[in-house]
Design brief:
39% helix, alpha/beta, TIM Barrel, Alpha-d-glucuronidase, C-terminal Domain, 5-stranded mixed β-sheet, 3 domains, 628 residues, Chitobiase, domain 2, homodimer, globular
Chain lengths: 628, 628
């Protein structure tokens, strides 16, 4: 009898500890406790959500949610109490919901729950979905779009909203910046309304990407010229229609005159003229136009691509309506594993700016590589002050895969994006630890080891893909593997790897110094001078700014070619270590399913890292060894 | 003209920085400065050496060497001054020589030269050469013996003596412990005298290993029985003869009744009876008998080999003459990459004890692996207090190879041995930094990177060879590669790998707990209990003390088999990193020749580490995976 009891006990423990997880719950609480009595002093759909979360998951006995008009911040909150009894105060109901999630986060990682005061650093904390209306996702690596038009999965969208609210995201652009004109038709707008209604209690406003030529393509006008009266009227009517359906609609995100998209330039109008037309249409309803600075090739053909955004937008600075925000990628090129910050943030000072970060790992191993982007974003904020920014957008990595992001560890990038949009002074390491504790295990060994790996993983990716400032030597189109010899006569030169690395028998790298394209001159001091001089240019950006001889002596005395070999090799060795640790040491901290899935992906990562190393060292060695 | 001048300057700089080095100068100064005036208040051959070193290499203007009878320590010294002017004081001339070398060491690494006071921690700081009379060296991996009998290379022996004096070594056993009886013949003793005369000014006394059966083998007696009167007389006469030639002769080192060597056991006499006979012969001349405890197989056949030394010697403790010292290897087996300390150090308290460390890398990759043994010796001194020891012996790694040790980094083990014999409280890391600075470069990056690698290298070796307490699974005889399936019916069982790892479908490891051979009981508390219990046994000695199921859960939650895989893989990955760093990043800190030679050996090490991993994981996997 004793033996049977023991067996039963063992089985129970076993069942609990090896609870099958598929990653769908993300970082949200795993087990309902339902031990707490939750009271409030106000009522709303949002407060109901907050109340429900604490009722279900707060493991103490008492929680109180209080609207407190004495507080000043519309989205902030305070927490006072302890793990047994806690009081959340906020000026508005969304603050109470954010506070409730913060209580649960602190509970999960045994954090402090007293004298907590939180305010978001940015007013706009947005996801940009590059989701097409047919369900496909540009640069999506986790299945099809969660926005299933005309067949919306409401339960899934609630989970999506809940996850975002739990990290403070308050805006969502539902469709790809390469936007279909159909997005603004009534049938789609009725669907958008459903999504907006669903997201509203979670504090999330809906935005749409628009195609600048929409009125013309839909056949309502003969042109899309922003100076054309009919066109301007069409947008005003359309804005009115949208706000009649969705009164708190956020606004438009616009990719114009970029990579084949239509824009005001088609009619010899400026970006300002185009943006202002839309801004005028949205202004009566307090809507916002978010206008992307990611443009190249149209008006500045032949100019160094990384200079074109400043060339294009700096003369327009100050000419935009008050409800226009410019949105600029963190770096001047295109979401490479490492770029210098975009000088747009130095040169545009009269117009509000938003930073566009890429959560989806287009250039960092997609959903096959464990690459934690927190350190990259920490690095960005070393150069770009939060005060200069009106908000943060992140290109989402979310799809219909059961685990949302394809790779379990890609969830950490979604999480870290939200946390940094709330407070960009958080360290990526602390965020990693928070996330690991909630998502996998609070075991000290596990959290220490895996947070160390996560912290290092981005530099490792740089090492095995494009160390020392190399950039854009990916295989064409899919951007996963290496293609350093890539050149296609039929493609724009700015899409070709050989254009970016400029390797020859003398050396390697793109000369952007004052003797080259002078891209350095777009930076504020001390960066302009620092990047300009070979001796002071940070070595991790060396080949971004300079064409350097293979025998150039690095700060540690090795030659450039030796240093390149070192980084490629070290990147591979590091990934091998990650896989070794995960495969042999982490299994028992993690449920079988997620362990296996991460393990499989780490194997892929090792293979791909080796491919990067082998292909790049062979190709570059052909030049470097010729010289020696 | 300007151009030519520039070219000449460039050439000069180039020549200096890439000065061809072959490793022969060891850690000793590279460039004579000859700027200092050196004065003394006494004269001797030793003081002449000290004076010459400072005259040649002290880069200041003034150095003073003072015999100071007020000082109390025969070998210690003080240093006062600075890099320009320095005063060394000592009670005896050898202290002045040690002080002079310390000044040069401090000069090389920019160390402090004021208020320095140094005393050696051990009276005996000895090298044991396992050199045979035919020039071969047992477990030597750096060419033939530097002791070329009847053709002595005096210049080479001066360099040898100088190097040893520079790190405080004061004794040298010239020949193999598996000793030839010929060693004590007059013709050899005349040669030994030449060596002794040559080493004397450097403060180094000469010792000889003796064959216990010498009088019988040479045909002077019919037995070697230590109770036999003629035998006893023979040894007395021989001692007298030796001291008439070499008045400061150190004494005998004896390997008796061990691995086929003759000894008192051949006549049913104890080790004490054998040692005391020799001690009585040497006593009139203040000579010492150093008697090795490395015995197994003779009187204790069938007993766990690691227990036999205590079984054999504990009953004899207190029965040895005052001029007998027992010499015991650091661990109870045989110089494995990791062993627990030898319990002889716990159990022998009435007889002086010396620790025998192995500088030559018999079981740690020989002269093909960069394995720095400083951390192993630091570990030993965590368990064995210096107060318990009369001295330290190190089995030398010196041969006629131009760089002395085969591998440039093996010089560091010679150096570290000397420094630790002088002061066992020094950290291996500080010693590594000292050595790197004097031997290669004081560049901060170089020293940081390479000292980090050196510090880690021993644990890495343990990982790729025999992690978690595995031991003695080397290929037979040469002890370089792996042979976990090793079994030879014609060999003693204690030489066979399968006997040591005991792997089967249930698990792996040698049960030395109280349920097994009870070797744990030979340890003092708390170690006896700690090692006995599976739960408290340190994981890095787990399989030394326990037979453990493959599915055993390690402290981090992984299974034993997973942990084993982790360590083997990590060992290889680490060596790959060392090679990568050296190959690509260290080239310009180091002259071409040494860089190339170390690089070649690191390649060998990578290959061998992979062989260890692949062979062991395949072999053990055959058991482990069967069980799962």
């Amino acid at each position: 009898m004793k033996k049977i009891l023991f067996t039963l006990l063992t089985l129970t423990v076993f069942t609990l500890s090896s609870w099958a997880e598929d990653g769908h719950r993300l970082w949200l609480p795993a087990q309902k406790s339902q031990t707490a009595h939750v009271s409030t002093n106000a009522q709303s759909a949002t407060i109901d959500l907050a109340k429900q979360e604490l009722t279900d998951y707060f493991a103490g006995t008492k929680a109180t949610l209080l609207i407190d008009p004495a507080l000043t911040d519309d989205e902030g909150f305070t927490i006072n109490g302890n793990e047994d009894s806690v009081v959340v105060r906020a000026r508005r109901d969304i603050g109470l919901l954010y506070g409730a999630y913060d209580v649960l986060r602190r509970q999960a990682i045994q954090g402090n729950m007293n004298h907590v005061e939180q305010h978001p650093r940015f007013r706009l904390r947005m996801l940009n979905h590059w989701d097409n209306l047919d369900g496909s996702i540009e640069r999506g690596y986790a299945g099809e779009s969660i926005f299933e038009w005309f067949h919306l999965d409401e339960a899934l969208l609630h989970q999506y909203a809940r996850a975002n609210a739990s990290i403070g995201i308050n805006g969502s652009v539902l469709n790809n910046v390469n936007a279909s004109p159909k997005m603004l038709t009534r049938e789609y707008l009725d669907e958008v309304r459903k999504i907006a209604d669903l997201l509203r209690p979670y504090g999330i406003r809906v935005y749409l990407s628009i195609n600048f030529a929409t009125p013309m393509v839909l056949g309502d006008t003969r042109t899309a010229d922003p100076k054309n009266k009919r066109v301007r009227q069409w947008w005003k009517r359309k804005a009115k229609e949208i706000y009649s359906i969705i009164p708190d609609f956020g606004g438009f995100l616009v990719k114009a005159n970029s990579e084949g998209q239509p824009g005001p330039g088609d009619y010899h109008r400026t970006h300002a003229e185009g943006a202002n037309m839309l801004a005028d249409a949205l202004a009566p309803f307090n809507g916002t136009v978010i206008w992307r600075c990611f443009v190249y090739g149209a008006n500045h053909k032949g100019e160094d691509r990384v200079k074109q955004a400043v060339s294009e937008f700096k003369p327009l600075d100050g000419k935009f309506r008050e409800n226009v925000i410019l949105q600029t990628k963190n770096g001047p090129l295109d979401f490479q594993p490492r770029e210098p910050y975009s000088p747009v943030f130095d040169q545009i000072s009269e117009t509000p700016n938003m930073a566009e970060l890429q959560i989806t790992q287009e250039y960092t191993g997609q959903s096959h590589h464990l690459v934690y982007l927190g350190p990259m974003w920490n690095e960005f904020f070393q150069y770009v002050e939060p005060e200069w920014l009106a908000g943060i957008s992140g290109v989402a990595n979310i799809g219909k895969d059961r685990n949302w992001c394809g790779h379990h560890f890609s969830q950490a990038n979604w999480y870290a994006f939200g946390r940094l949009a709330w407070d960009p002074s958080l360290s990526s390491e602390d965020i990693a630890k928070e996330w690991l504790g909630q998502t996998f295990s609070t075991d000290e060994n596990f959290v220490y080891m895996m947070s160390t790996i996560m912290e290092e993983s981005r530099e490792t990716c740089v090492d095995y893909m494009m160390p020392l400032g190399l950039h854009h030597i990916f295989k064409f189109d899919h951007h996963y593997g290496p293609e350093p010899d890539g050149f296609k006569a039929e493609y724009p030169l700015e899409w070709c790897p050989v254009y970016y690395h400029q390797a020859d028998a003398n050396g390697i790298g793109f000369d952007r110094s004052s003797k080259g394209t002078d891209a350095v001159s777009q930076y504020r001091e001390p960066y302009a001078s620092m990047y300009d001089k070979l001796e002071t240019c940070p070595e991790n950006l060396l080949l971004w700014f300079h064409h350097v001889p293979w025998t150039y002596q690095m700060k540690d005395g090795s030659t450039l070619w030796e240093s390149l070999q070192y980084h490629y090799n070290q990147g591979v060795i590091n990934v091998e270590t990650y896989h070794n640790i995960w495969h042999n040491k982490m299994r028992h901290y993690v449920d079988e399913q997620r362990w296996r899935e991460v393990d499989d992906r780490l194997e892929d990562q090792v293979q791909n890292a080796r491919e990067w190393r082998d292909v790049c060292l062979k190709y570059f060695g052909g030049f470097a060894n010729k010289k020696q």
